[in-house]
Design brief:
Elements (H helix, E strand, L loop, with lengths): L2 E4 L2 E4 L5 E6 L2 E2 L14 H17 L2 E6 L9 H8 L5 E3 L1 E3 L15 H13 L11 E5 L7 H17 L3 E4 L3 H13 L7 E4 L7 H9 L3 E4 L6 H16 L6 E3 L6 E2 L17 H12 L4 H16 L2
Helix pairs in contact: 1-2, 3-4
Bound molecules: zinc ion.
The site of zinc ion has 4 residues, from loops.
């Protein structure tokens, strides 16, 4: 049986419907050395984020993947509190963010030692709780992968092969994606357990196809951020559908969130971006350009369940 490994336990994916595969509830982008790093009271976090979860619950969203790993303020206490207030199933990653955000005690350890920590979070629980991580998130700087990031990718491959959890990597542009896919393949990773996060940052659509041919999931995850980019992501999505790779595409907003260090946790200056644009505008636009009900179901239900299912 395939399950989504949520913060409140395993849920059979067959019980789920619409899944948002890349969003945020809580982020600290100041890095792990900032004063008050990762702090936010559960009540304050819930007070800010709950109305935005209510909006997508009303639209039929059943599960929500939070994508903040170690290094950008993952706060299990706050996330567990939020998860108890909504019927939406919440998935949280293990893993670590890019160079400059890596906890100091993880800088000099081997891929195997780092993987051991992540495997514990995926199979036993995170930070002393019984809440298990549901996938492995890593990240590259824009001109990455750096040496330490390549180490993280090798650790991610070890943890993925040991647990079945998928790897998602914040990756800007096709050059970096190609390099990291080669690192993962050399580490024995089947790329059907890898998500190229932020693939919309590459405008050469032949590289989206190339990644899909290699087996990777291609994620367009800035929906609702701005109209020009939405138009591009529509083109990118339709291109992959037409090429026969629609079953490797993920769509999300990368939106939110309670931001540590900002007044009342509201991100500055842009404010809190909610999670409704995919349903309210992007899917209708896909339909108007010829996507079928079956395509939409694949993109929003089947694909994220297959990607994140363990
Ligand atoms: Zn993100």
């Amino acid at each position: 049986m395939t399950v989504l490994r949520t913060i409140k336990g395993d849920i059979p994916t067959e019980q789920l419907g619409f899944i948002l595969p890349h969003e945020h509830l809580f982020v600290d982008l100041r890095g792990p050395l900032a004063p008050g790093y990762g702090e936010g009271t559960p009540q304050a976090v819930a007070g800010l984020v709950k109305p935005y979860l209510d909006e997508i619950e009303a639209r039929g969203v059943t599960a929500f993947v939070d994508c903040a790993p170690w290094g950008v303020g993952r706060n299990i206490t706050a996330l567990r509190h939020v998860a108890n207030l909504t019927p939406i199933h919440i998935v949280v990653p293990t893993g670590v963010y890019k160079e400059g955000f890596i906890p100091t005690n993880w800088l000099d350890i081997s891929p195997e030692a780092l993987a051991e920590h992540w495997i514990t979070e995926l199979t036993e629980g995170m930070e002393g709780t019984d809440s298990k991580a549901g996938f492995i998130k890593v990240a590259l700087v824009d001109d990455g992968p750096k040496t330490i990031e390549a180490r993280n990718l090798r650790a991610a491959a070890i943890a993925s092969k040991a647990t079945g959890a998928i790897i998602g990597s914040h990756t800007i542009g096709g050059r970096a994606a190609r390099e990291e896919m080669s690192i993962l393949e050399a580490a024995g990773q089947n790329l059907n357990r890898f998500i190229w996060i932020h693939a919309q940052t590459e405008s050469d659509t032949s590289i989206h196809i190339e990644a899909a041919k290699r087996g990777a999931w291609v994620e367009f995850d800035a929906i609702g951020a701005n109209n020009d980019l939405d138009q591009k992501m529509l083109d990118f999505t339709l291109n992959l559908l037409e090429a026969g790779y629609g079953n490797q595409v993920l769509l999300s907003h990368d939106a939110g969130w309670y931001e540590v260090g900002s007044p009342s946790g509201v991100p500055q200056p842009q404010g809190y971006r909610g999670y409704t644009a995919l349903i309210d505008s992007f899917i209708p636009a896909l339909r108007s350009r010829g996507a079928t009900d079956a395509d939409i179901h694949m993109l929003t239900v089947t694909n994220p369940a297959r990607a994140y299912g363990i």
